[in-house]
Amino acid sequence: MKFDTPAGINPIDKGRVVGIPHDRIDGAAKVTGSAPYAYERHDAAPNAVYGWIVGSAIAKGRIAAMDLRAAEAAPGVLGIVTHANAGKLGKGSMNTAPLLGGPQVDHYEQAVALVIADTFENARDAAKLVRIDYTPEDGKYDLAAESLKGVMPPDSFGTPADTKAGDFDDGFAKAAVKIDQRYTTPDHSHAMMEPHATTAAWNGDRLTLWTSNQMIAWGVGEVAKTLGIPKEKVRLVSPYIGGGFGSKLFLRADALLAALGAKQVGRPVKVAIARHQIPNNTTHRPATIQRIRIGADKDGVIDAIGHEVWSGDLPGGSPETAAQQTRLLYRGANRMTAHRLVTLNLPEGNAMRAPGEAVGLLALEVAMDELAEACGVDPVELRIRNDVQYDPEAGPQRPYSSRKLVECLRAGADRFGWDKRKAKPGQVRDGRWLVGMGVAAAFRNNLVGKSGARIGVDAQGKVIVETDMTDIGTGSYTIIGQTAAEMLGVPLDQVIVRLGDSRFPVSAGSGGQWGANSSTAGVYAAAMALRAKLAEKAGYPADKAQFDDGLVKFDNKSQTLAALAGREGLWAEDSMEYGDLDKRYAQATFGAHFCEVGVDIDTAEVRVRRMGGAFAAGRILNPKSARSQVIGAMTMGVGAALMESLEVDTRFGFFVNHDMAEYVVPVHADIPQQDVLFIDELDDKSSPMKAKGVGELGICGAGAAVANAIYNATGIRLRDYPLTIDKLLKAQAA
């Protein structure tokens, strides 16, 4: 099915199942422990043995020699995989560095060996006996020190490095009010509950990987390319994923080494990347240095806006595209954005929840707050004055398909009690606490991609849906089930959803906030094909048949789905493909974050007292799970604002705080109250679902609202994240 004209009235609009809050249909399996995760596939591979990854002890250089004798002689050891015996390996196009290092070492903790043993403990203990001699080389590990060497990177996912409109330099020079500030964000680590894990087994020349992977089709292609085998010989199975946030978009060392280990020992092998290895072995969100310049008139109306970003990655890597939202969020005839990429020998930088906007808005929305103060305009009103209903770089010829930022700001402010905020900082006290409020806009592009599904009805009238779409804790099972139930006119409990298997039709996968809208649109396409088959079998016109209560109806006639399906069942398969609507219309999701903090007058301890947000993201497919996504994202925003930072040892090139004891993330006590409001919106140019993504929108701007609240409470403006106690105390003393 092709989606190339705006959606009209369709079966989803009935809203009997879609758009209604539902518990997750996979919830019971998860809380009872019966959901099979990648490392737990005892059912599929009951005789599996265990692998433990040995990571490089240097950040750059070469392996001079490896002594495996003591490890090979250790109890229970069955084999050891290294570059010397792994055979010829390719490199996936989505991996910046090889997943198995040697003899060259590209970054600290790069996998250089896998020790395989009969038990987990034996594999772990034997790994400590591997002796490696290295020849270290000098590397580059300090973004600030190397920033002047940054170069313009190639396009990233179709996004140009630099953009221009009008004459920024002239517009900024003539502006009555100017903001020119630098902001920094540190490296961030994914901290999902389930580590990267895989169980691998060979059956002849066919490989099956039960793995934790967000993008099944991508994974199949990358495995095949890396191992040099046909894609048809590779099967990925990933029905349940314990979180990913982008770290599991691509093939990682656990999957490759499990496959190599299983081939070597002739038995299934399971590999999990240990928690302390994840920050340095896998991917992370890169640090940024950002310069923002805004020129406006005395009323705060923007005429010139410029955003420059410096970030680093391994050779061949990509930038953190933190100026993306600045191209699209606010008005201004004179515009400029630029990204510069610095070569660093730190572990790979790559996608982490809302790449680009998550850290870009940490800077832009603080700069907007600074502009509001400089102009003497309320921060909410300033953002409303600079709203624009079209792509400000392209002009009015590319309007937004739907844009309700102003509605989010107004409704969110009213609900939060913004009118009680004191404009002058440091005016509100509650005992020992200085209290302040902050606001920030939320923005995230709306992306869609081709997505397929197979849907059928069995002899009992049950509806079955199969697609390789994954569920990373986001509720994919439920919204896909809701879509099928809506389209076929059955209750949700009459739908069986099967996900995460490369034998199923290829979906868009989970990433970039495109998963929910795209995958349900694929189910919509398959369901429309099945509806046509059912109507034809019933002898009814397909465009007039109604599907209600397990029946196919036309005029006063009806037949049950079960009867039409027959003993063999009836199936249909299709995919949703997209035309050029996203070129003709700017498409994005919007929101407004509000935060109230307390800052201790003596210790500078910051406490988030409450948060609120209003969001416009098209049709909300399941308000219950969507709310969960947003409050989780808001919580991550608090982490980015106040505590999260991978600390780089710039002498030796690694992240020092590489465990959950020292990489600090928010906990329940840090987030006492969160309120979420969804603004009514249908976007008929997004998909037949008239929905958009929401899973990443909630992190975008959340941290800036915290930063702006701290300023309102204390009068201290910090631009170097995270906003920790030591920085507040230092500024307070100054």
Automatic annotation (TrEMBL):
Q: Which Pfam families match?
A: Ald_Xan_dh_C, MoCoBD_1, MoCoBD_2
Q: Which residues form a coiled coil?
A: none
Q: What is the lineage of its organism?
A: Bacteria, Pseudomonadati, Pseudomonadota, Alphaproteobacteria, Sphingomonadales
Question: Per its UniProt record, what InterPro entries does this chain match?
Answer: Ald_Oxase/Xan_DH_a/b, Ald_Oxase/Xan_DH_a/b_sf, Ald_Oxase/xanthine_DH-like, AldOxase/xan_DH_MoCoBD1, AldOxase/xan_DH_MoCoBD2, AldOxase/xan_DH_Mopterin-bd_sf, PaoC-like
Q: Can you say what this protein is called? A: Xanthine dehydrogenase
Where the record annotates domain Aldehyde oxidase/xanthine dehydrogenase a/b hammerhead, the positions are 32-138
Q: Which GO terms describe its molecular function?
A: iron ion binding; oxidoreductase activity
Fetch the SMART domains from UniProt: Ald_Xan_dh_C (SM01008)
Return the PANTHER family for the record.
ALDEHYDE OXIDOREDUCTASE MOLYBDENUM-BINDING SUBUNIT PAOC, XANTHINE DEHYDROGENASE
